[in-house]
Amino acid sequence: MSRTLLERLARRGMTPGLERIRALLARLDHPERAFRVVLVGGTNGKGSTARALARVLQAAGERVGLFTSPHLLDVRERIEVDGAAIAPEALDDLLVRLAPHLEASGASYFEALAAAALVYFAGQNVTTAVLEVGLGGRFDAVNAVEPALSIVTNVDLDHTDWLGPTLAHVAREKAGILRPDRPALTAATGAGAAFLAAAAQARGARL
Question: What parts of the sequence cross the membrane (predicted)?
Fold first, then answer.
């Protein structure tokens, strides 16, 4: 059932926007509000950064949820708690429960997995969730949550068909995960860092 559902959602493709994921989270009573969230975006290194941060937080005594993409062999790799991937039966049960909401909201494949991760994390009583951005930032599904901290690893030209043709365009998209008066971190350098700093200032973020 779960594999069939995910395959069907994958055929829907991807349309930028946060309306569907926000509607879905509202239908699910906002599981993302049960824990702190760190968003990790950037052109390169966001997956390894998210994983390293999760390990550091776990070592500090946090119960940590980790959502990453893409997976290598099994979709379960995307959803972990304290380093352990979600069990096959747990993912199956979760997707069966979520199926009516996924259909009603018109969720995409990525949006469905992001929502499933958030519901799972809430049920597992995590204290902090580290969520890796899938593409860009501003319209990515994980950006529907309110982060305590946002990280942009770096800024370079990538996915220009989605994010825009220049570094300034890409920086604005990736800065979409920053929040006013909230801390943000980056390892960006050069022109990418300058464009990101300008975008962060425009958003009122503390970069």
Answer: none
**pLDDT tens, position by position, 162-198:** 666 788 888 888 999 999 999 999 999 998 899 899 9
Cβ atoms within 10 A of the Cβ of 11, count?
8
pTM: 0.94
Specify which residues 154 forms β-bridges with: none
CA within 13 Å, CB half, 162? 15
Residue ranges of the domains in the chain?
2-203
Q: What is the pLDDT of residues 4-36, one digit of tens each?
A: 888 888 887 778 889 999 999 999 999 999 999
Strand order in the sheet with 36-41: 84-85, 79-81, 64-67, 128-132, 36-41, 149-152, 184-186
By DSSP bridging, strand 149-152 and strand 36-41 are: parallel
Is the domain spanning 2-203 CATH 1.10.760.10? The answer is: no
* H or E, element range at 7: helix 2-10
Confidence of residue 1 (pLDDT cuts 50, 70, 90): low
Identify the CA nearest to 176 among candidates 204, 153, 206, 203: 203
